[in-house]
Design goal:
Catalyzes the reduction of hydroxylamine to form NH(3) and H(2)O. By secondary structure, the chain is of the alpha/beta class. It has helices spanning 25-45, 52-63, 73-89, 106-131, 137-150, 156-185, 210-220, 240-243, 259-262, 313-322, 346-351, 353-361, 382-390, 430-443, 462-473, 491-501, 509-517; strands spanning 191-194, 196-197, 202-206, 226-230, 248-251, 270-272, 288-291, 300-302, 329-330, 339-342, 367-373, 395-399, 414-415, 418-419, 421-423, 453-458, 480-482, 504-505. Bound molecules: iron/sulfur/oxygen hybrid cluster (FSO) and iron/sulfur cluster. Residues 208, 231-232, 256, 275-276, 373-374, 401-403, 426-427, 460-461, 463-464 line the site of iron/sulfur/oxygen hybrid cluster.
């Protein structure tokens, strides 16, 4: 096997025997086969109009290969068969040999992989929008264009142009998902979320799929079962159409990489709706449920019914059987805090934009940091905790995605009535951050790069790759990135990105803060 798509890749180079994520060689090989089948589907679709089934498979097939999503070789095999059927319906296409996927000149491989990983990330976002009934033909068409391009040879300039074009399409995709989420569940409002788990039966739901949460809330209403979010599901508490359910009680645990410890012996079922699944330990494997694109061998999977509704009865019955804790249990975040805040998406922040602009003009807010992105297991990630702790009192920290668990339970006080740490949402809510930055730039009549704003990002998997490409396509410069740089960026490709966009790898919080504020 060969895989180097995520930040925890073996030795910072590539997983070749088994994935650090737990993916074994047979699943890696099936995922490569699926990727090649999608390239062939894109070739077959060239100049034709593929139907909705092929469109759906493009998204689902790419999403299934994102890190920590699907470890089940049978489910990947099913997808391969379906993709092949769609390819034949379109008249077939020349095979793309699997050994070509990772085998090439180092720069060509780097550029091709960057596009492929970005598209895997965008597929997850397009999928969530699709589930909520929102699609955009431009985005769908770009999946075919991009996958076809991955099967072709390109000059470095052509490949870089493709990456920038992709970044703009991914912005469109994040906007579509933002519209899908806000039209279905309303605009998030600032909300305090306790980390206490009340006694009695409960269910933990993790991942990004808000529709799964909505259906679970409906099906558990009046049953004496409480629902707790975990990981990237935390921002759900801010949405009016979700927070109205009184049994959506709070948040359990922290970010994805702590799940094997946090779920150890937990007296409740855990529903995984998207990526962030780690191989379950024996002490809780019997209570892990997957749904949607997620899969793990011998784990119960909840499929969608014909009416679009999922029947979560097996999860509900498990919650009743396990019964929860006999007494209320207080949990804390990694810094000892007992509650966190979320819901500062674009609508909420722009609602107080006047206050922010005034505070910046008056010098009360001297700098805005966006400290966002992924969490992960590397010890170096405590950089982000230290960085946030050390930001000056006259600065604001916007955050998003699961990296926030490094500091979201800290109380850093307030500026002008606003908390100094504001959680904008999930990774896809990077869209909110872009909208806020663009509006601030308009108000100050300058470019985003000239605002007193610095992006300090952490990456782990492929959604972070697509977001980074969007930021670059928007010509956002001076991004600090860590904890390490992607293994799939060759030195030459990295040099281009550094030269064009001044991407800087994080060093120490003190040094970086000195550079940023100096
Ligand atoms: Fe991923 Fe990163 Fe959303 Fe996390 S991009 S790892 S679970 O921040 O958030 O899916
Ligand atoms: Fe390794 Fe990451 Fe690939 Fe898993 S997803 S096999 S950890 S590079």
């Amino acid at each position: 096997m060969f895989c180097f798509q995520c930040e925890q890749t073996a030795g910072g180079k590539g997983c070749t025997k088994v994935g650090v994520c737990g993916k074994d060689a047979s699943v890696a090989q099936k995922q490569d086969e699926l990727t090649c089948a999608l390239i062939e589907l894109a070739r077959a679709a060239d100049g034709k109009s593929p139907g909705p089934e092929a469109d759906k498979l493009m998204m689902e097939g790419l999403f299934a290969t994102v890190t920590n999503v699907n470890f089940d070789p049978n489910r990947i095999q099913e997808l391969i068969e379906l993709v092949k059927t769609e390819k034949e319906k379109l008249g077939g296409a020349e095979d793309f040999p699997q050994d070509k996927l990772w085998d090439d000149d180092v720069n060509a491989r780097s550029l091709r992989s960057t596009l492929l990983f970005g598209m895997r990330g965008m597929a997850a976002y397009a999928w969530h929008a699709h589930i909520l009934g929102k699609e955009d033909k431009d985005i769908i068409n770009w999946f075919y264009k991009g996958m076809k391009a991955i099967g072709e040879d390109h000059s470095t300039d052509e490949a870089l142009n493709l990456l920038m074009e992709f970044g703009n399409v991914n912005l469109q995709c994040m906007a579509l998902l933002d519209e899908a989420n806000t039209s279905a569940f309303g605009h998030p409002v600032p909300t305090t979320v306790p980390m206490k788990v009340e006694k009695g039966p409960f269910i933990i739901i993790t991942g990004h799929d808000l529709l799964d949460l909505k259906q679970l809330l409906e099906q558990t209403e009046g049953k004496g079962i409480n629902i707790y979010t975990h990981g990237e599901m935390l921002p759900a508490h801010g949405y009016p159409e979700l927070k109205k359910y009184p049994h959506l009680k709070g948040n359990f645990g922290t970010a994805w990489q702590n799940q094997q410890r946090e779920f150890d012996g937990v007296p409740a079922p855990i529903l995984f709706t998207t990526n962030c699944l780690m191989p379950p330990k024996a002490s809780y494997a019997d209570r892990v449920f997957t749904t949607g694109v997620v899969g793990y061998p011998q784990t119960q999977h909840i499929s969608e019914g014909k009416n679009g509704i999922k029947d979560f009865s097996p999860v509900i019955n498990k919650a009743l059987e396990l019964g929860g804790y006999p007494e209320d249990k207080i949990f804390t975040g990694i810094n000892g805090g007992t509650e966190v805040m979320t819901g500062f998406a674009r609508n909420a922040v722009l609602g107080v934009a006047d206050k922010v602009i005034e505070a910046v003009k008056a010098g009360d807010i001297k700098h805005i940091f966006l400290v966002g992105g992924c969490d992960g297991a590397r010890p170096g990630r405590n950089y982000y905790t230290e960085f946030v702790k050390k930001t000056p009192k006259d600065s604001v920290v916007l955050t998003l995605a699961c990296g926030k668990y490094r500091f979201n339970d800290l109380d850093l006080g307030k500026i002008g009535g606003l908390p100094r740490i504001m959680d904008m949402g999930q990774c896809n809510d990077a869209y909110s951050a872009i909208v806020v930055a663009t509006e601030l730039a308009k108000a100050f009549n300058c470019s985003v790069n000239d605002l007193p704003l610095t992006l300090v990002l952490s990456w782990y998997e492929q959604k972070a790759v697509c977001i980074l490409l969007t930021l670059l396509a928007l010509n956002i410069k001076n991004i600090y990135l860590g904890p390490t740089l992607p293994a799939f960026l060759s030195q030459d490709v990295l040099n281009v990105l550094v030269e064009k966009f001044n991407i800087t790898q994080i060093s120490t919080p003190d040094e970086d803060l000195k550079k940023i504020l100096g």
